[in-house]
Design brief:
Helices cover about 0% and strands about 50% of the residues. By secondary structure, it is mainly β. The strands form 9 sheets. The protein has a 6-stranded mixed β-sheet, with no helix packed on it.
Length: about 525
């Protein structure tokens, strides 16, 4: 039977206004020349390592300061740090041409896989062609090269992301303009190139994806079913790409384990949207971050110029929710990660001083936003100085705090130790404190049966449309999150016996809540 309430509303005290985290330590990292490049994509990568420290990859023109050697022009640069930000070791890799590291992660053997691009044919680069190729380097735990692979053709090919896969191999994504060598299936101009490698860097399969205009592959992850999901942006509307809304769209593609397309979809409006980072969420769906300039199509709001754009998808690619964040200036998000509380941390750059953005220092700042599981803003933080600074990667650490990396040209504000030109700037933030509580009034939500075993129905008779449902335990952890039609059923068979909080948000933004008992 239905559980009905005679009260008009229920009051809940929710710790959804979290105190901003504070800086535990920050350090500039570089030499007297430039590290990275302003406005470059995927120019540095950071990940916590098994020992509690972290590994960093980028590229440098310097040969002094923190950089002990330069092979010529830009070198790939990798450094291992302690948890407190002290350098354990650092190395440059490359030849006399231009060499870049865009992505790094720890491998199962305790070493690292680094990916980027090389325009060299000497030094550390074996078999290069000067034209720009995917450059994949396997390092041991001290940074010594174990093996390397150069992949591509006679034109330029740039790798933006590489990760180890469950079989011990690797999945890599980037952009190609080649139509020979390792690359075939090229259509025109710029395409996405995704490559599956075995454990020693040999190609197992590859695909050229896109259409006849410009398509850029930015990020790829292996999914729970053994396949892959990739984030890109595309101006095409033919061949593999359909449904373009205008100019560039975010283009998300789900692949099977052997690289066949299971589904693909363009997201955006009539202007310019990009997807830069993607992950699979705890509920089996996906979430991507990037930027949006439109006010139509899939984009329902624009704060001014380009905004952070975060889009939550179900497992088949349908939008569950999407939100923009920013001010009247320009915001671009480059990294997103799901946090231990079921929410999300998103990092990028902003030059706004209004709207969602507070505390701007001048020019572009690091901008970090924390969202709950429904995309509601919990806190935001700007970091930097009066020059150009923006985040390229962010990770939640084991202690609940956040590690942020990016590019900085500032010598003031939060930055006191610039080495010269552009530096990489690394910031460790403390865990946020749930010290600020907000009283929110929720209308009562009908849940039946209650207690329940495997299935419940959720309904608010005064509202139509859909319900964005979030179920949390007594510790506030999100255990289930799903969008369902109002009045339909929800599978709760995976929840153990206990009492849970259920919050549902309607299409109009009204919030409803109730307690749910599971008894089996």
């Amino acid at each position: 039977m239905k559980l009905l309430f005679s009260t008009l509303s229920l009051l809940f005290f929710i710790s959804n206004l979290h105190a901003q985290p504070t800086i535990e330590w920050a350090r500039s990292f570089g030499g007297s020349n430039n590290e990275g490049s302003l406005f470059d994509d995927n120019q540095c990568s950071i990940q916590q390592t098994n020992d509690g420290g972290f590994i960093f990859a980028g590229y440098t023109l310097s040969g002094d300061g923190d950089v002990t050697s330069n092979k010529g022009n830009k070198d790939a640069w990798v450094a291992k740090f302690t948890h407190g930000g002290d350098v354990v070791w650092q190395r440059t890799y490359g030849g006399t041409g231009y060499d870049y590291a865009h992505s790094i992660s720890q491998t199962d053997d305790g070493g690292y896989i680094m990916g980027g691009a090389s325009y060299s044919e000497n030094g550390d680069v074996v078999g290069g062609h000067l034209s720009g190729e995917f450059w994949i380097v396997k390092l041991d735990e001290t940074g010594e090269i174990q093996w390397q692979s150069l992949l591509g053709g006679s034109a330029w090919d740039i790798l933006y992301s590489i990760k180890q896969t469950s079989d011990g191999g690797y999945i890599a994504i980037g952009t190609t303009t080649s139509e020979d060598g390792d690359v075939f299936g090229f259509d025109f101009y710029i395409n996405i190139w995704i490559v599956k490698l075995n454990e020693v860097g040999e190609i197992q399969w590859h695909k050229v994806l896109g259409g006849s205009v410009q398509d850029t592959g930015m990020d790829v992850i292996q999914t729970n079913d053994g396949g892959y999901i990739l984030a890109s942006f595309s101006a095409s509307n033919n061949n593999f790409v359909s449904g373009n809304h205008g100019e560039f769209d975010s283009w998300i593609v789900k692949l099977s384990a052997d690289g066949n397309i299971e589904w693909s979809r363009a997201y955006g409006g009539s202007y310019f949207e990009v997807a830069t980072s993607i992950l699979q969420t705890n509920d089996g769906g996906y979430i991507f971050a990037g930027s949006a300039n439109s006010t139509d199509g899939d984009v329902t709001e624009n704060k001014g110029n380009s905004d952070f754009w975060v889009v939550k998808l179900n497992p088949s690619g349908a939008i569950q929710w999407q939100k923009t964040y920013g001010g009247s200036g320009q915001e671009v998000a480059f990294a997103i990660q799901q946090t231990t509380d079921g929410g999300y941390i998103v990092g990028g750059g902003s030059n706004s001083i209004d709207g969602d953005v507070t505390g701007g220092h001048g020019d572009y700042d690091y901008w970090l936003i924390k969202l709950n599981g429904l995309g509601e803003l919990q806190w935001e933080k700007t970091l930097g100085g009066t020059q150009h600074d923006y985040i390229d990667d962010v990770r939640q650490m084991n202690d609940g705090g956040y590690l942020v990396s990016g590019i900085s040209k500032s010598t003031d504000g939060d930055i006191s130790d610039n080495r010269g030109g552009n530096d990489y700037w690394l910031v460790k933030l403390s865990p946020e404190l749930n010290s600020v509580q907000e009283t929110i009034t929720f209308e009562p939500l009908e849940i039946y049966p209650n207690p329940a075993q495997n299935t419940v129905f959720l309904q608010e008779e005064a509202e139509g449309g859909t319900l964005q449902v979030r179920i949390t335990n007594a510790q506030g952890q999100t255990l289930l999150q799903q969008t369902i039609p109002n009045g339909s059923s929800l599978d709760v068979s995976n929840l153990p016996n206990g009492v849970y909080s259920v919050i549902a948000v309607t299409d109009s933004g009204k919030k409803f809540s109730n307690k749910l008992s599971i008894t089996k």
